[in-house]
Amino acid sequence: MQSWQMQDAKARLSEVIKLAQHDGPQEITLHGRPVAVLLSRAEFEKLSGRGQSFVEFMRSSPLYGLDELEFEREQTATSPMRASSAGSPSARPPPSTSAC
């Protein structure tokens, strides 16, 4: 990635843009520290995912069009609270709603 000082990038903006289109991102520095990167529009679209809608993204999945899709879950121990609230004899009764 080529690096440009801010004042040089401003003075030669057309050149910096053309280089971003042909050679890739161009870094811009201010007082010797990187502050920005200039990208071509195509590179920006690729990185941001704005080139396609969410529906298009989902339809491009290799799983699109499958009639059945099964997700297997690993059987792990559940927390004691969840296990006891599944109707087992050790489940706590609901709190009393009687008035005092």
From TrEMBL:
<comment type="similarity">
    <text>Belongs to the phD/YefM antitoxin family.</text>
</comment>
<comment type="function">
    <text>Antitoxin component of a type II toxin-antitoxin (TA) system.</text>
</comment>
<feature type="compositionally biased region" description="Low complexity">
    <location>
        <begin position="79"/>
        <end position="90"/>
    </location>
</feature>
<protein>
    <recommendedName>
        <fullName>Antitoxin</fullName>
    </recommendedName>
</protein>
<dbReference type="Pfam" id="PF02604">
    <property type="entry name" value="PhdYeFM_antitox"/>
</dbReference>
<dbReference type="InterPro" id="IPR036165">
    <property type="entry name" value="YefM-like_sf"/>
</dbReference>
<feature type="compositionally biased region" description="Pro residues">
    <location>
        <begin position="91"/>
        <end position="100"/>
    </location>
</feature>
<dbReference type="InterPro" id="IPR006442">
    <property type="entry name" value="Antitoxin_Phd/YefM"/>
</dbReference>
<feature type="region of interest" description="Disordered">
    <location>
        <begin position="72"/>
        <end position="100"/>
    </location>
</feature>
